[in-house]
Design goal:
Immunoglobulin-like; alpha+beta; TIM Barrel; hydrolase; 9-stranded antiparallel β-sheet; 3 domains; binds 2-acetamido-2-deoxy-beta-D-glucopyranose; 9-stranded parallel β-sheet
């Protein structure tokens, strides 16, 4: 079944030797000669455009490219290429280049549904296209004929966005190269997954290799678990931030070289299939991107609660103990997890009869479910090879494992020898869905965690089960070392492609610690091509499985991801370490996944691997202060780590109650962001430039982030620090923990950095002017917290005369799989607040589909208004357009006295107490306004003598 190595490999090898010999001898000479830049041998000489036609009915352009001059570097050139260009929407243009004669591998349309490109060879029809430009609404495609190049520019600004004329296009079977020029001041983001020590903004000359790999997240600038060949390009044009994005939809391994003024892709297969997204705002970019790749999956409400996990909860008693300790420490906890400890000999979908006996586990689940808590377990894709194991037997019966040389491909993971199911095979997916169903009958878990799905393999190459020693050896202290008998695979061009990407950050073989790339999936699909889709295809199958059995909104956490994974699963940033550096890196990776359309993301709080010496207590305080604001907030540790549940230290428990206490008050806001992410792709956690694209000083900010549009988190990331230097974009920002503390920034220059106090147990979280923030009373379990009364925090600029503020809240029945605004199932309330002349204040809500909220009895008890002077009087409330006595009959509205402001202004070193006489926080309390009814509330402010 395997293709033989093609004859061209031989001459190519000789050429390389020849080239190396020349390089060595010329080096010898150049030691004395004048230094002279040696032009690198090009991998190709480009193509010329020989025809171009416009298909009827807006069907795009189709062109034919002819290679100009052949080379054999990295294999022979594909002589004739088909160009296809289409403005698929008003803000998206696609430029696809592929072999004109032969179908090539591309990301399967059933995994990532999208508009098809025209079939090859079909009579295209249409008229010759002679114009130099092919404009859409704002994006314009232009091209050169000989040599062929293409460019995309923006009509409104005339800015070139992408231009491939700087280097010849190269298109071989296993090597594609294309390069674009970039302005030196463009800020780029994306191209993951990698841990970026330089922060969120791509750093010139850092390596960006994309190939899914189980290299732990502590490896910097390395191809980690996911592959996302997309970047956002943000440029500041005369004070205005303008963004677009570029996706190269391709699942093959690739190196991307970014120099600051150019970006070059070197890809080892597939097509060049570019999508350009016009923006022009960062939010518009992610909207357009997720419209194409799939909107982020809606998450259940409880998933925004706090999660605790550890690899090494040896038995159920330990787990029970953890839950009770959280409970008695009054630290919020919604979800308890087990890694592989509940399993029988680390086999998927099993229970250890000794450590997690089923009757006891079911009794425990009854108990925690009654409290509103949830339970999630891990599963790996590798299925233990064991004739007595039903999951394995059924998989063999259905013949769904990935194969090498006609036999299931043998690997080693935690249970020992395993085979890998093929989730691209429809039978493989339906077998998996059935196994998920069977397991759910055994244990009613609330979600699944799919790990090791890059796929990770402790061995490399072609392996057999040893006859001379036990594998795995149950006494081994290092069960992650390969114990199978293996030999390297070097005989195919899939195992040893002509161009070597920087796999695993060490130019490793493609098959290194994963499935051999010459292995085959269903229908002859090569692992070489489908490798980076493995975790994605597993997430899709797992999602189908959970949704069909539970009839509920699934929660899945996956380690390996690809373009589109966000429509099915959440992500954590993988195996990090308990260090201050890892604490800091977590922010950039989290923000990147927001851009990748996967906003439910977080890092292992307090670190997964133990650091030595462990700086744990202080670090863990700071980590929960940051991690409480990750969209996905979970403490997880390795079996070798010291215990690090948040109640283990008094000081950490205090920090946790404080930070998670605020998170649980913010749950309605986070859940509304979840809804907005699902509708528009807007990330839950966002880089500052998402709300302040014109404010260039925030383009590189990687130590702070926004939740939604107007809440900013500025954590401490340094040992021993008791203050934090934070960037504040223009406007008034109120400390959410103490709203009398305000920061007023004009956003000018370096003075937009403020030094704020940050004692050990406190984290700085601010709300920006113009926001109406919905809060509830909080609690320790989200089910209870979500039933408590609401407070609306209305943030006006400090001392505002005329200002507006807006916000919204979405509530629904999170058991329903779909997140749609429908009568009886969900309610959406929009809030608008205004002050006029510094006196007349209006707070209005505008409710859609109110009945769900009414049936839950949700009410607003308080409105907190920030930034105004004086005290309120003459309160008038209308509900549903009428002076509704019944709606507020149970309450007695009152105004609370205003607290004085402590405003920190630009240029002030110390805490400047600004205008002690002036009010800044005033309250309208004692309300019982139904959230499900539109209301208008007015009052006036008067300044007391
Ligand atoms: C792309 O580069 C070519 C060659 O330098 C140039 O003629 C063309 O104007 C450029 N187009 C855009 C949109 O940048
Ligand atoms: C559970 O494991 C803990 C820690 O390993 C041990 O101390 C305890 O005896 C075990 N309990 C049961 C019921 O096995
Ligand atoms: C197969 O699994 C059973 C049950 O866990 C175990 O007792 C047996 O040793 C396993 N066999 C092999 C060959 O690993
Ligand atoms: C396989 O190749 C790797 C990397 O070249 C090498 O380190 C290893 O020793 C080889 N293994 C065998 C069994 O030949
Ligand atoms: C491969 O990646 C590693 C890790 O970032 C880097 O140190 C190394 O220089 C890269 N190698 C090449 C050839 O780019």
């Amino acid at each position: 079944m395997l293709p033989r190595p093609p004859p061209h490999l031989l001459p190519w090898r000789y050429l390389v030797l020849l080239f190396l010999a020349l390089a060595v001898s010329s080096n010898g000479v150049s030691a004395t000669a004048k230094p002279k830049a040696k032009a690198p041998t090009p991998a190709g000489f480009g193509y010329k455009l020989v025809s171009l036609v416009q298909r009827p009915n807006g069907g795009g352009l189709v062109g034919l490219l002819q290679v100009k001059r052949r080379t054999s570097t990295y294999g022979p050139d594909i002589p004739r290429l088909r160009l296809f260009v289409k403005h698929e929407t008003k803000d998206r243009v696609r430029v696809q280049i592929t072999d004109a004669e032969k179908q090539r591998w591309e990301v399967p349309y059933d995994l990532l549904p999208r508009e098809p490109s025209p079939p090859l060879g079909a009579a295209t029809g249409g008229a010759p296209f002679t114009a130099g430009e092919y404009p859409g609404q704002d994006l314009v495609f232009t091209y050169g004929r000989d040599p062929f190049w293409f460019a995309v520019h923006r009509l409104s600004t005339r800015q070139p966005l992408f231009n491939t004329s700087r280097a010849p296009l190269v298109f071989k079977d296993q090597y594609l190269e294309v390069s674009t020029r970039l302005p030196g001041d463009a800020a780029l983001y994306g191209l993951g997954e990698s841990t970026q020590p330089g922060g969120i903004k791509l750093r010139p000359n850092d390596p960006y290799t994309l190939y899914t790999t189980d290299a732990s997240a502590i490896n910097l600038n390395t191809d980690l678990y996911g592959s996302h060949p997309v970047y956002v390009d943000l440029r500041n044009l005369a004070g205005r931030g303008v963004a677009h994005a570029v996706l190269l939809l391709n699942s093959n391994g690739m190196d991307v070289f970014y120099t600051g003024t150019s970006l070059t892709y070197k890809v080892i297969g597939g097509l060049l299939d570019f999508y350009f997204f016009a923006g022009p705002t960062p939010l518009a970019v992610v909207d357009q991107y997720t419209a194409m790749i799939g909107r982020p999956a809606p998450m259940p409400y409880w998933a925004f609660g706090f999660h605790q996990c550890r690899w090494g909860y040896h038995n159920l008693s330990v787990v029970e103990d953890v839950v009770e300790n959280y409970w008695s420490a009054q630290i919020p906890l919604d979800v308890i997890w087990t890694d592989d400890d509940h399993m029988d000999a680390r086999k998927d979908f099993t229970l250890s009869p000794v450590n997690y006996p089923r009757p006891k586990l079911l009794a425990f689940l009854d108990k925690i479910h009654a409290r509103g808590m949830k339970y999630i377990v891990l599963i790996d894709p590798g299925i233990n090879v064991n004739d007595t194991y039903g999951v394995y037997q059924r998989g063999m019966d259905r013949d769904i494992f990935i194969k090498l040389d006609g036999q299931p491909y043998l690997a080693q993971v935690w249970p020992g020898p395993v085979y890998f199911p093929d989730f691209i095979n429809p039978d493989g997916a339906s077998w998996w869905i059935d196994e998920v169903r069977r397991f759910h009958e055994l244990v009613p878990v609330d979600g699944l965690w799919i790990d090791m799905n890059e796929a990770s393999n402790f061995c490399t190459g072609k392996c057999t089960i040893p006859t001379t020693h036990r594998c795995p050896d149950p006494t081994s202290k290092e069960p992650w070392l390969c114990c199978l008998d293996c030999k390297n695979l070097t005989n195919t061009r899939w195992d040893e492609p002509p161009y070597k990407i920087n796999a695993s950050g060490k130019s490793a073989r493609l098959g290194y610690n994963t499935i051999a790339t010459s292995a085959v999936h269903y229908n002859g699909v090569l692992e070489y091509n489908a490798h980076s889709l493995y975790g994605f295809s597993q997430a899709i199958a797992t999602h189908k499985g959970l949704q069909s059995i539970q009839g509920k909104r699934p929660f899945i956490l996956t380690r390996s991801t690809f373009v589109g994974s966000g429509a099915y699963a959440a992500h954590w940033t993988g195996d990090n370490k308990g260090t201050w550096e890892d604490l800091r890196y977590s922010i950039s990776t989290m923000l990147n996944f927001g851009i990748f359309g996967m906003p439910m993301v977080g890092s292992d709080i307090c670190g997964f691997y133990p650091a030595s010496p462990p700086p744990l207590e202080e670090l863990c305080s700071r980590w929960i202060e940051l991690g409480a604001f990750y969209p996905f907030s979970r403490d997880h540790a390795n079996f070798a780590s010291p215990r690090q549940e948040l109640y283990q230290w008094q000081s950490v428990a205090t920090s946790a109650r404080n930070a998670l206490g605020m998170r649980y008050r913010l749950l309605p806001y986070l859940y509304t962001l979840n809804y907005q992410a699902h509708l528009t792709g807007a990330p839950v956690a966002r880089p500052l430039f998402f709300s302040f694209p014109d404010f260039a000083p925030c383009y590189g900010v990687s130590n702070q982030f926004l939740l939604g549009a107007g809440v900013m988190v500025s954590p401490v990331l340094q040992q021993g620090a008791s203050s934090v230097d934070a960037v504040f974009p223009p406007g008034t920002w109120y400390n959410l923990f103490d709203t009398t503390k305000a920061v007023v920034s004009t956003g000018s220059g370096a003075s937009a950095v403020f030094r704020l106090p940050a004692p050990l147990n406190e984290v700085n979280v601010h709300v920006h002017q113009g926001t109406v923030l919905p809060l509830q009373r909080g609690g320790t379990i989200s089910r209870d917290a979500r039933a408590t009364p609401f407070t609306l925090v209305v943030a006006f600029p400090l001392g505002a005369e005329d200002a507006d503020a807006e916000g919204a809240v979405y509530v629904d029945d999170d058991e329903r799989p779909a997140m749609v605004l429908a009568e009886g199932q969900a309610t959406y309330a929009r809030f608008h607040a205004a002050v006029r002349g510094g006196r007349e204040v209006t707070v209005r809500s505008d409710v859609a589909m109110g009945s769900y909220s009414m049936s839950k009895g949700l009410v607003i008890e308080k409105i907190t208004v920030l930034g105004l002077h004086g005290a309120g009087k003459d309160l008038a409330i209308q509900v549903d357009g009428a002076d509704d006595a019944t709606a507020v009959a149970t309450s007695s509205p009152y105004f609370a006295a205003a607290d004085a402001a402590q405003a920190l202004r630009q240029g002030e070193e110390e805490d400047g107490v600004e205008g002690g006489r002036r009010g800044v926080t005033m309250e309208v309390g004692g309300l019982a306004l139904p959230l499900g009814k539109s209301f208008t509330m007015t009052w006036s402010m008067h300044i007391e003598a």
